[in-house]
């Protein structure tokens, strides 16, 4: 054991249990930011809708999807903690064409995803402000940009931890109360099967953003580098932070499904495609179990949740696009801050254009975004797997047999459902 390790061990022993917990919590951040990005459309919309329409039938699917995607998301924290570089640097080392492929697809995903989460946030705002979704979406995007440009990563890190804590407590409380609520099932109701041919589109959309698009692994990688500028983060701390964030997203995905199942399934109600009506239905779902007096409190929590998702989506996509194009054109770091700001503004404006095109139809927009995510996710998964099994990585840091097997199972499932969706869309 070398002197540094001895000193580190002695220091940890000296500060005591509370000090060690505090040090671990301070090292968290990137993983919780990833969770904040995930707990948006995939949870508030897809999981809740899955429970409302199909009951518990898709619970195991949500758990399986989170498990099968784990190796591809974990690559962000593991690769950066091991090498001190981002995943994008890893793609470039494998060949410029790999980074170019990622960056082009990521550009499309960035614009579509920004539109989706911004419209959902605007829909939540309609509960408080009597303006059209288009105008509110502009306000959401403008305020997100202002927060990111003035506050940078430090503010994003602090705000997200508070929002995640409040959202988790509120959602778990609502789910616990829902188990004791009277069932909403009407007489003669027969639960539909999610495995009917007509529901393939919804299944693909749900799995596309469950728990999040795989390119989020690159955000985690870049956020970890930002965190390391503030303090030293060990490999163990980085992996703990990622696993904490990922486990939170998986658990809450099932919790949101349970809310849809217990409060809405069998009631005869269906979520509206209109953004404003959908937001009202979602908050009504919560208030039915927490009490009508909690309606506006829940609305504020849900708004904070999806707003934090919007901010993290703009930040994460813009960081990866800025670095990706910077590496491709071999741009110097001197103008990286201005370049990042320009991309944030550009992505937001293009996202607003998509919102205007869909004219307030929230569910069709989100289904489009989620489906796009699913159809590109296999490529992102393959890039991460290729990197984590590359000989450029130290043997101890590469994926072992179990992670390789899980990765192949995950890519098999992604490929199978992608083929099924293409068949359903063209010939089915």
From TrEMBL:
Keywords: Membrane, Transmembrane, Transmembrane helix
Membrane disposition: Multi-pass membrane protein
Pfam families: Nramp
Membrane spanning stretches: 27-46, 58-77, 98-121, 127-150, 162-181, 201-223, 244-264, 296-317, 338-358, 364-385, 405-424
Superkingdom of this protein's organism: Bacteria
Signal sequence interval, chain numbering: none
InterPro entries: NRAMP_fam
Subcellular location, record wording: Membrane
Protein name (record): Membrane protein
Provenance organism: Shewanella algidipiscicola
Lineage of the species this protein comes from: Bacteria, Pseudomonadati, Pseudomonadota, Gammaproteobacteria, Alteromonadales
